[in-house]
Amino acid sequence: MEEPKAYFSLITAYLNGEMEAEEKAAFEQRIEAEPDLAKAIAAARALAAEQAVGPETEEVAEKQEIAEGDQTESADSSSSESDTVPPPTPTQSNWSRRILIVGAIVVGLFGLKWLFTPPGLQDLYQENFEGLPIPQYSAQESHPLMATYEEALEAYAKEKYKQAVPLFENLLADSAFAQKYADDLNLLLGTALIGSGQARASIPVLEEYELHPQFRHDVRWYEAMAFLQLEETENSLHTLFSIAENPESPYAERAYQLIRQMRF
Question: Rounded to 5 degrees, what are φ and ψ at 107?
Answer without folding.
Answer: -65, -40
